[in-house]
Amino acid sequence: MTALASRPARTAGTGTGRGVTPVIARAGVAVLAAAAAAFVYYVCVRTAPGQSADTLVMRGAEVHHERIEQLLRRALDATTLVSLVAVCLAAAAIGMVRRRADLAVAAAVLVLGANVTTQLLKTRLDRPDLDGFPAPNSFPSGHTTAAAAVAFALVLVLPFAVRGTVALAGAGYVTTIAVATVWAEWHRPSDTVAALLIVLAWGALASALVRARRTGVAGATTRPNRTATVLFAVVGALGAAGALLGLGAVLVARWAAPDLVPGSLAFAAGVAAITAAVAGVFAIWIRLAAGDRRG
Questions:
Q1: What are the pLDDT tens digits along the chain (295 aa)?
Q2: CB-based contact 287:224 (threshold 8 Å)
Q3: What are phi and psi of 230, to 5 degrees?
């Protein structure tokens, strides 16, 4: 029993993760995520077709199922500033208990950076009225940013063995929050997708900081949780397919018979798109966060 207990855990090869390549790769992900968020803004806010499709999805959120309505309402009610601060403090405490101050600092950078960026963009970006539905700018979603940032932070600071499970639970929670904001007509789908990309950008930067500190350490990286990776890939592929088919059907129906387009179909396509976006960013994140197995 003593021999089994003292046997060292398996780690990646001694050359894995060494050098500056992982740091550069993570910085590249951050740049690409930021560019993708800018692209979403241009297409869905600065063009008439993008605004029309975005608003159509939001206004089609006519869910009349009691249990689903209760779930969405409770998810929004539970996402308060106090609850999010509590989770952030818990994430920092976990990092310190594990004697990983670098993870605690990186989690703080991730959460603060993503939320400050979202609030600045929301107040400073312009939204021209191109679809006949005047409304103040809501891009990007603050609720989605907060929920995703907290989930990312927990994945980052928790031990390697539970990161996959936490990522799956976090993705489910973030999807619920994102869909709920569209259902409540607080946000359009593009607002939530952009929020996810902003969190991913800051997460990649935070991960780059951790990896920069660990440059040259043998066995510092390992593969992400395989089960979580496969599930995210499957859900993301199905969600993307559903979104493309649903939005395509809506656009064709609007052209052929505008008065007969069911709003629920547009909303369902939007939910599929949000689900695919959440699965995609979490699949990338568990890969970036798998950079340290120690502890």
A1: 333 333 334 444 434 445 688 889 999 999 999 999 999 999 999 998 888 888 888 877 665 555 655 666 666 666 666 667 777 777 777 777 777 888 888 988 999 999 999 999 999 999 998 878 878 888 999 989 999 999 999 999 888 888 889 999 999 999 999 998 898 888 899 999 999 999 999 999 999 988 887 665 544 455 667 888 899 999 999 999 999 988 887 777 666 655 655 667 888 899 999 999 999 999 999 999 876 555 4
A2: yes
A3: -65, -45
Query: Distance (Å, rounded) from C-alpha 249 to C-alpha 2?
Result: 64
DSSP summary character for residue 260? G
Identify which of 120, 58, 86 has the alpha carbon closest to the alpha carbon of residue 270. 58
Characterize 64-79 residue by residue with b for buried, 16 or more Cβ atoms within 10 angstroms of its Cβ, and e for exposed: eeeeeeeebeebbeeb
What is the CA 6 to chain-centroid distance, rounded? 38
**28: CB partners within 8 A, 6+ apart:** none
CA distances from 219 to 15, 17, 33, 101 (A): 7, 7, 28, 19
Which two tokens mark 267?
Answer: 């909303």
**Backbone torsion region of residue 19, taken as left when φ is above 0, otherwise alpha when ψ lies between -120 and 50, otherwise beta:** left
The residues near 235 (Cβ < 8 Å, ≥ 6 apart) are 275, 276, 279
Domain ranges in the chain are 20-128+137-291
What does the DSSP assignment read for 142-190?
Answer: HHHHHHHHHHHHHHHHS-HHHHHHHHHHHHHHHHHHHHHHHHTTS--HH
